[in-house]
Amino acid sequence: MTSEPSTVDTPLKKLVGEKTAKALASHLDLHTAGDLIYHFPRRYDERGEHTDIRSLDVGEQVTVLAQVQRTAVRPMRQRRGNLLEVTVGDGSGGVLTLTFFGNQAWRERELRPGRWGLFAGKVTEFRGKRQLNGPEYVLLGEGGDGEAAANEEVEEFAGALIPVYPAAAAVPTWVIARCVRVVLDTFTPPEDPLPATVRAARNLVGIDTALREIHRPSSKEELYRARRRLKWDEAFAVQLTLVQRKHRAADWPAKSRSSRAGGLLDAFDARLPYELTPGQRTVGAEIAADLATAHPMHRLLQGEVGSGKTVVALRAMLQVVDAGGQAALLAPTEVLAAQHHRGMLDLLGPLAQAGELGAADGATRVELVTGSLGAAARRRALAEVAEGRAGIVLGTHALLYEGVDFADLGLVVVDEQHRFGVEQRDALRAKADQPPHVLVMTATPIPRTVAMTVYGDLEISTLSQLPQGRSPIASHVVPAAEKPAFLDRAWRRVCEEVAAGHQAYVVCPRIGEGPASEEEPPREDDNGRRPPLAVTEVAPLLAEGPLHGLRIGVLHGKLPADEKDAVMRSFAAGELDVLVATTVVEVGVDVPNATVMIVLDADRFGVSQLHQLRGRVGRGSAAGLCLLVTEAMEGSPARERLDAVASTTDGFKLAELDLEQRREGDVLGATQSGRRSHLRLLSLLRDADLIRDARAEAIGLVEEDPELDRHPALAASVAALVDEERAEYLEKG
């Protein structure tokens, strides 16, 4: 170990020793002084304040601040030796038993009643009592007066606020705290990357103060100021990256695709059987203006399920065809691609029949390209695309394959963008000679701060109105374990709807026999619950039981493409009463006669997924009903989540709930890259104002200094916080 000055790049082994450095590297991926300094505490415990032991979950790896209440030694039954049981409490009535095996009289002397300590281990339960078996611990001082013991092990806990770090069983929080203290004793901070003008305008502390106070806070006020400054660094780095990319994109050359009077778009509008909503008209005008510019449109179109995004996209595609180009729509599944194809052919009629009898003047062709096309059909479709006769091309990832060539690709529409990897979307964009215009569509509403942070380099359009004729959807939770009669009533309701001439969906989380797939969760979760219900198992039970006599079809991702298409066609034509399916029906499936959906094991689905699923009903003139069947007990987090879904159809509220329950850092592509998220402190929901202010400062700075040439320290900080891989993820959106 060294007492020489250290920097962010100093290897930890020079500072904390080889053995500790190896543990930090292998268990927490911390290799340098900078890695450790930016490994911020997860929370802060305060002596005398309780940790709420009653809220701990069995199986959770925890660190608790608690006081020893009593100790007891008793002989072990199965083997020789004694068992030491130590009862600790949190001051609120919550107690936890610590168990130590073997003859450890010294430990009994050390863990005297009244001592406060940090205790770390995995929560287990024995005879109804919460316990930690053989936990790691560090005692904070003599008696209960909160004064720190004068030994090196607990010197870092001298303050009132005790940092608790994201830790590992082999590297508990107090070891991390000790290492941080060693590093801070020699640490030379980097040059402050934030321009002095921004620091002064936003009343932010310097980087050195922030890094020291976040680890060893002198007061709650100083901790707040430190966290605020470090959140600013994160928000500013992301916003600078997005604003820079938006600035550069403005200089990219693209072919203008202006609207043309008397073309396909005008003819389409004239034959539409309904009025566009004001929202569709407004968003359509925004897109039309973007397409007419000489740099690529990069727009996100978000709207509730059933808000009419597809018609908006089709009008944009027709504008591009009118301007002599081609448009491609990339859909996540063959079912959805085929449905788009059928829907667009119906809407366009003779406008999509170029080369056929009865075609309208100036008609184009709409081609479908999927992996299941036969060889002859594929050759014909690809020729239509390559020679430009097909103005509109629809498909799955098969559009990305080599051999799919466009004559003049002018617009790429990506449906349900969260289903595609960055590389897949970019591969389609690369098929154009010049950057094409890009329209990204999603029915998963995105909270404002997420859109600002992840899609900050896209223009954002939102459709909030539902078209005329759409019906409201009522949602209810069916507690199958507590009230089995409610489930019986749900099946009777399906029969009633079918008797009234309507149809129903039954959605299961799993397909059935065979390995798990993307639409099929693992057989058994970590809590040992039964396997999720499966389509292939549920369908015959329903046919023999509560839905006996109804025409039942099965749909899931493992069926051959032609079989999937046949099932969907049968259901759409009213030849099936009930469709038992996986989440393959989550997006785009449009059967206006379907009025009821029963989601089995609803607690196994995410909030946004449930919102998407229920959007499959209520698409016609009859009201929709969604029943969320669960065995989750009242008061459990899973049940509260379902109650929230049932209580509102506001997708933006649900998106915020969904975000609260996920690791927010994932939105920056950490999941995609398999790396740690660099959003360590910033909360996309709680820090909305800070993100907005950071964006305003970023816009001003980039206008003055587009490449940050006059701010090299800031440029380096941005590169460290938003690395190239993550920047590409943001850029490709």
Automatic annotation (TrEMBL):
Domain Helicase ATP-binding residues, every copy: 290-463
CDD domains: RecG_wedge_OBF (cd04488)
Keyword Hydrolase included in the entry's annotation: yes
Segments for region (Disordered): 512-531
Keywords: ATP-binding, DNA damage, DNA repair, DNA-binding, Helicase, Hydrolase, Nucleotide-binding
Pfam families: DEAD (PF00270), Helicase_C (PF00271), RecG_dom3_C (PF19833), RecG_wedge (PF17191)
Domain Helicase C-terminal: 486-660
Top-level taxon: Bacteria
SUPFAM superfamilies given in the database record: Nucleic acid-binding proteins, P-loop containing nucleoside triphosphate hydrolases
Gene Ontology MF term list: helicase activity
NCBIfam families according to UniProt: PRK10917.2-1, PRK10917.2-2
Protein name from the UniProt record: Probable DNA 3'-5' helicase RecG
Source organism (scientific name): Micromonospora coerulea
Lineage of the organism: Bacteria, Bacillati, Actinomycetota, Actinomycetes, Micromonosporales
